[in-house]
Amino acid sequence: TSDISSAASDVYKRQSQIAGFFWEYYQFTMDKEFLEKMGYPFLKKAAEFYVQTLQWDEKKNEFFIFPSQPYESPRSHDLKNPISDRNMIASTMRACIESAQILKVDKKKIREWQHIIDHLWAIPFRTEPGVGEVMQLAYNPDGSIYPAVEDYGKWTNHFSANTSLVFPANIIGLDQKGSREFIAAENVVKNHSPDMNAISPDPIVAARLGLGDVVLERMTNGIRRLQHFPQGLFYNIDHWYNLSLYMDSVNQPDITTQRDYIYDQRAHYPKGHPAKPFIQCGLEPLSIFSASVNEMLLQSNEGKIRIFPAVPKGWTPAFKLRARGAFKVTSELKADGSIPGIFIESLKGNECKVVNPWGQDKVSVWKLNGKKKQITYKSLKNDVIAFSTESNATYLITQRGRKGQFDVSVYVGTQNHAPKHFLEAILGKSRNF
């Protein structure tokens, strides 16, 4: 019963996350036909599950859910108001409201969803020694916080339910820097256990919080522990060192003996079965790390485009990536920290909002199609500029005075003739004959 309840509870939250992908597809493409025929129907069904599942607390004048659990917590399936449910309810219903308004449908449902959002339970917080305040996982049926405050060291789990407000719910980000929730999420990603990588979105969360060096540390740690195979596939668990023949003879077996079971045919499970690699190769870790790199370079999750929001010290990247609003964005960060400009390709002619990467410096916006010309823009709060665009037109944003001119860097690749090594990980394989 516990396992069934656990699996069902996780399915509900995963359903709302999948619905979020449908909403994001619309945001990136602005494909209204997709939203009408596929995106909104799926979103609405995910929201309606929660409408039917939530219960009303007359005394507190708020909704609650019971029984449920945070992500990946099969031993605690009889909890009340997990934070992951709370955040995905708010995220899904906000997307439903915006979708319904775009499509001009379901006015009554819009009011119902907004009423639920306005009457969700409070986020549970607790202070963890040596870490600081964190958003806690859930409540026990008696109203006390789960896990108990005295259970130090149990304030998080693999999936970091207590950072779900940042990702995958997409409710807070750099616009809320300094808020209680923002700081609590920072405390989690800066202190997450190093042996919880496989299904943890910590690198993405750290990028959304602008913590470039933390992203790099989390990805480096995850690659060392999980990228076991020369074709680039990752494992989905961290603890293969438990199968090592040498685990008991080294001081730090979690890294130093992580891979010997692949090469040593003598390695066996405790009951004698051969320890052959088999589990979930190449699923969550590769997706998480890929998404993390994109989020380090470009974010558009708060109604505006940010370039290089979480780049580690010493990086000199360039990118071309899609942004919400149906834009393609290209930019480059030089070794001296300068940014020559930002190219914006507008696919659907929407208004474009960009956080000025030069702070309060004045900028120039140029339309490049046909005869290049300078266009006007609006200056909004917090160094945001906004300008109108036309479909399939390209724009260039520069610091004022550059006249839309600068050298363009050309990047070329070279054929890979030998394995590439990164600490314990390897891409390619040396000749063994």
Give an overview in words.
By secondary structure, the chain is of the alpha+beta class. Helix content is 32%, strand content 16%. It contains ten helices and 19 strands. It has helices at residues 2-29, 32-53, 83-103, 107-118, 180-191, 202-208, 212-226, 253-256, 260-263, 284-297; strands at 55-57, 62-64, 125-128, 132-135, 138-139, 145-146, 298-299, 306-307, 318-323, 327-332, 342-346, 352-355, 363-367, 373-375, 378-380, 384-387, 393-399, 420-422, 425-427. The strands form seven sheets. A six-stranded antiparallel sheet has the order 9-10-11-17-13-14. The chain has a three-stranded antiparallel sheet with strand order 12-16-15, with no helix packed on it. Helix 1 (2-29) packs parallel to helix 3 (83-103), helix 3 (83-103) packs antiparallel against helix 4 and helix 6 runs antiparallel to helix 7 (212-226). It is globular, with a radius of gyration of 24 Å.
Summarize this entry quickly.
The chain is of the alpha+beta class and 433 residues long. It has ten helices and 19 strands.
SSE map:
Layout: H1 2-29, H2 32-53, E1 55-57, E2 62-64, H3 83-103, H4 107-118, E3 125-128, E4 132-135, E5 138-139, E6 145-146, H5 180-191, H6 202-208, H7 212-226, H8 253-256, H9 260-263, H10 284-297, E7 298-299, E8 306-307, E9 318-323, E10 327-332, E11 342-346, E12 352-355, E13 363-367, E14 373-375, E15 378-380, E16 384-387, E17 393-399, E18 420-422, E19 425-427
Antiparallel strand pairs: 1-2, 3-4, 5-6, 7-8, 9-10, 10-11, 11-17, 12-16, 13-14, 13-17, 15-16, 18-19
Helix pairs in contact: 1-2, 1-3, 2-3, 3-4, 5-6, 6-7, 6-10, 7-10
